[in-house]
Specification:
Strand content: under 5%
Distance between the termini: 23 Å
Helix content: over 70%
Number of helices: 4
Shape: elongated
Structural class: mainly alpha
Length: 138
């Protein structure tokens, strides 16, 4: 079994969890009559700071998930197994959770630095995974 598949499922579940929180927030406001369904404009901050950070964290997941998904699924389809690739996949999900946690904790310098660190770790792992994938295919 490919252990890199589990972090992909975890990344997907994390993304779904965040969007469900966003949808719940919006649904409560619409049902309570405090907002209309068209009063959540894209890219313009609306709602509390925490809500907006959850919204942005979800969008960050949506940006990274396709890259991660293509890498993992292509690797699995290739039939090649590599423990380093699998380890990198686990590191990606840890870094994704770190980035989201820092995103949700606030917008201070420390929070942003931790968030950026999580982002950089993910993309370094993506790069290393791509190298492993290309080497396995060639």
């Amino acid at each position: 079994m490919f252990s890199s598949l589990f972090p992909l499922i975890a990344f997907t579940a994390w993304t779904i969890l965040l969007v469900l929180i966003v949808v719940s927030f919006r649904t409560v406001q619409v049902l309570a009559g405090t907002k209309k369904s068209n009063e959540f404009p894209a890219w313009i901050q609306h709602g509390s700071d925490l809500y907006w950070r959850i919204h942005r964290a979800h969008l960050n997941c949506v940006e990274g998930l396709p890259v991660f998904g293509v890498l993992v699924l292509t690797f699995i389809v290739s039939g090649y197994q590599n423990d380093t690739f699998d380890l990198l996949a686990w590191i990606v999900i840890g870094a994704r959770i770190l980035q989201t946690g820092a995103h949700l904790s606030g917008g201070g310098v420390w929070n942003v630095n931790v968030r950026f660190t999580g982002f950089i770790i993910q993309y370094l792992c993506f790069t290393a995974m791509l190298v492993i994938l290309v080497r396995s295919i060639l």
